[in-house]
Amino acid sequence: MLAALIFRRAFTGWCAALAFIGSNLLIRSAVSAVGKYNVVKYTNLVSMLFTNELLGSHHNLFWFGVPVSRIWVESLAAVLMCTAFVTIFIYIFTFGQILPPEHKKPFFPFFKFKAKINASTLVGQEIHKLLIINGAVWVLLLFVGIQVYASVIRESYIGINEIYYREYMTRLSGRFTQEKLDWLNTEQEKFEPIFLLDAELAKGNITEEQHESLMAHYASLQTELEVFKRIVSKKIGYLSENPDAHLVYDSGYSFLFGITGEKDMEDALWAGLISAVCFASFFAMEKSTGMLRVIQATPLGRQSTVWAKSKICWGIATFIAVMTLLPRAWQVGHDYQYSSIFSPAMSLEYFQRLPSCVPILVIILLLLFTRIIACFSTAMTVLFISYKLGNTLGAIFTSSLLFCVGPLLSFCGVIDAKWISIYPLFHFAALQAETMTSVISWIYLLLYFAIGVICQSYLLEHFGEAF
Predict the structure, then answer these.
(1) How do residues 245-298 score in pLDDT, each as one tens digit?
(2) 25: which of 100, 301, 327, 466 lies 20 to 30 Å off by Cα?
(3) What is the 3-state secondary structure (H, E, C) of the chain?
């Protein structure tokens, strides 16, 4: 708000505020934590967000040659920043204001854009209001940029064990046949040098030191043998207990479904925040501009407006859900591959309880579907809050508290707080691994879908009632 007042343009203010926060992040990343200027590293807004780091350990900072506890330095910085921001804001507010549209200079001074609206349908008009007038398109584009950037720069950390495992499982993927068994028996012959050395050691023909020295020449072959043994003992053994299962390269699916590499909490936080910012003004602007009176006078009436907004919510909710999965899906496709997607899901050990008629592809689609339901429920709840409060900033603040506090508390160590958020629907696939958590996840899915439908029904029934 301070930046918007100073630059007299909301959009320029957003850019300046983000640049200020970005500079704080850059300072934190660039300055050493043990160097002479470590005070600068920790006296900024970004460092104050790391509460676990601040309260969980004692860290002295270099304060003009004197060691000072970090918590005192950050507390003083917080007080000074808060005082400075409030003081400057009040001073600027006494004479500054955001200029009306006709007095604004174009954002691109060398180009002139003429506003033109050709919305032939109610949905088209509502899309224009949400994306252009309310500025949601900038929020969504920023989110897309962050997710695409995170996908592209993500580095591969696959080790030699995983490379061998991928080669074997890709070669053996599918139903286990006699031909594949014969291939495994043939493949085992390459490990004969290691078996011979182990046999010589067991007979006492060579010492431990000689054994280790000779085995050093077969380091790579030893690693491959460990992978081979794991496949034979674990994978083939699992097939003997579950005849309907197939051999599937499962490392990528474990990461995609949240079994390993927990990212679902972060995705839930992003979805809640983006929904709160995008949809908070969707109904608030109708009240603040008096458009509710106009809507009641139109031939289509109030319900058509609510239906149009609901359709847009479905579309953007689907878009947000897909984008939350993009970095992970990209990494799985790049590093692990989507192999055997039509094999039974029970081929993955953690989905053993599922029937053999359910393929892995269904679990992938279910993962996306539950995220769409979560985003739709979040969007409709934000619309409800926006309508009841009639104020954009109030709706953003209330919605952010509702959908972001749970994940943030979980990140700060209050692990169980994640269950009071939309996290269960983002972690839905992993919850199918056990009977109890599976039942709980389906209850959450029905609950959040019901919340979305109830909010939509209320708006259909009561939208514009006050007038």
Answers:
(1) 999 998 889 889 988 757 889 899 999 999 988 888 888 777 766 776 777 666
(2) 327
(3) CHHHHHHCCHHHHHHHHHHHHHHHHHHHHHCCCCCCCHHHHHCCHHHHCCHHHHHCCCCEEEECCEEEEHHHHHHHHHHHHHHHHHHHHHHHHCCCCCCCHHHCCCCCCCCCCCCCCCCCCHHHHHHHHHHHHCCHHHHHHHHHHHHHHHHHHCCCCCCHHHHHHHHHHHHHCECCCHHHHHHHHHHHHHHHHHHHHHHHHHHCCCCHHHHHHHHHHHHHHHHHHHHHHHHHHHHHHHHHHCCCCCECCCHHHHHHCCCCCCCHHHHHHHHHHHHHHHHCCCCHHHHHCCHHHHHHHCCCCHHHHHHHHHHHHHHHHHHHHHHHHHHHHHHHHHHHCCCCCCCEHHHCHHHCCCCCCCEHHHHHHHHHHHHHHHHHHHHHHHHHHHHHHCCHHHHHHHHHHHHHHHHHHHHCCCHHHHHHCCHHHHCHHHHCCCHHHHHHHHHHHHHHHHHHHHHHHHHHHHCCCCC
- Structure-token pair, residue 310: 């609901």
Q: Which residue do the tokens 């050395």 mark? A: 197
Q: Which of 19-33, 75-89, 130-144, 256-270 has the highest mean pLDDT?
A: 75-89
Question: Which amino acid type is present at position 85?
Answer: F
C-beta separation of 124 from 312 below 8 A? no
Token pair recorded at residue 139: 């929020």
How far, in Å, CA of 445 to CA of 423, rounded?
Answer: 11
Q: What is the mean pLDDT of the chain?
A: 83
Q: How far apart are CA 215 and CA 233, in angstroms?
A: 23
Please name every residue paired with 174 in a beta bridge, in sequence order, or none if there are none: 247
Non-local CB neighbours of 272 within 8 Å, separated by 6+ positions? 378, 399, 400, 402, 403, 404, 407, 421, 422
| Side-chain-facing half-sphere of 199: CA atoms under 13 Å | 6
pLDDT value at 108 more than 60: no
Contact predicate 353/177, CB 8 Å: no
* Residue 153: CB atoms within 10 Å: 8
Closest CA to 268 of 146, 147, 406, 141: 406
User: Of the ranges 79-93, 285-299, 317-331, 358-372, which one carries the lowest mean pLDDT score?
Assistant: 285-299
Distances (CA, A) of 345 to 174, 249, 427: 12, 12, 17
pTM for the model stands at 0.75
